[in-house]
Amino acid sequence: MNIGRKLTIALDWDNVLAPCTELACQKMTQRGTPVSVEDVTLYSFANFHKELADGLMAIFKEPDFFDSQVLYPGAAEMVEELLAAGHEVVIASAMPPEQMGIRGKQICSLLPGIKESNVMLGSRKDLLHVDFLLDDADYNITSSPAKYPVLFTRPWNKSMEGFLRAGSYAEFIKLVEAVSLAPTVEPIKLGSAGHPGMICLVGPSASGKSFICDELVKNPLFRKVKALTTRPPRDDGSDAEEYRFVSEAEFNAAIDDGSLVEHTTYAGHGYAIAKQEIEAIWAEGRIAIKPVDIHGAMACKAVYGEQCVSVFVRRSKEDIVLALLERDISNADKTLRLMTLDQEMENERLCDWTVSNNGSLDHAIRQIMRIVG
Hints:
Layout: E1 8-12, H1 21-30, H2 50-60, H3 75-84, E2 88-93, H4 100-110, E3 119-121, E4 132-135, H5 138-143, E5 148-152, E6 164-166, H6 169-181, E7 198-202, H7 209-216, E8 222-224, E9 227-229, E10 243-245, H8 248-256, E11 260-266, E12 269-274, H9 275-283, E13 287-291, H10 294-304, E14 308-314, H11 317-326, H12 331-339, H13 341-346, E15 353-356, H14 361-372
Parallel strand pairs: 1-2, 1-4, 2-3, 4-5, 5-6, 7-13, 7-14, 8-13, 9-10, 14-15
Antiparallel strand pairs: 9-12, 11-12
Helix pairs in contact: 1-2
């Protein structure tokens, strides 16, 4: 891990560093009711019928349940890497008082590098003022005062949008490095890395990143990356330029053979950025461009390094709110996007460049052309 500014990092225990939901599913399966962690699509088993959900929750209360936990592969190594880089690492675990002693001993035993004073037990993670919080519960992320609350991707939060995410320990390390090194790293110009290249446009909903992308692809130098999806195409074919439609089997095969930069599930359908789509654009001698969330941008940079630059599209909060309120989307969608707006605006610090969309569209385009170099 590259060493930069020292940060304070809080890590959740259950389902982030050590299995909890998986363990309950395994025990239930051993007792004759087969259930997989991949079936758990809502927190606290809320997608299951009441009898099964209550049975799984009861397993958590069994005296020996937490004694049987071990660390996920790679968890200890990630913690050691963060500590070796000089970061202050805190373990934040929500436990009832009667089980705090067990959990405290467990953490100190399995992670001996963590100071006892940095073991914090209790559910009030909304009081933890740290640089990073890594947690699998969306309610902890939305209420966190951390500068960078990061949702650790698990089956029960895959459909959540608008969050800074990490799908693996390696991805989280990359995020920490990006923030830690930010003051000392010179922004990359795409031309300095040589063509072909990729531009990831990042910003909140209604920041204008899609409009900027659509304007840029009028220039033959650029081509928009199609997303891979399992959802059906619209009857009028209006989304043919946005997506490449594949079957569930094809999508899963692409995951298995490592041909996706990143993938997620939303409303029961798979969405992904495929390496083939990007590299086909490069084969034409063009620059690939795509509006993405910060997770997608970090995933692209992890794969392609300096061949990829992330550009944050900055627009005033007032203009974004007004634009969202005028959109023809459900009130629930509007509420979610407004709730995550402040967090998404913080992602500017994770991007290589910022362009302003508070003036004319032409001005934003000129800024990006300078980044292309």
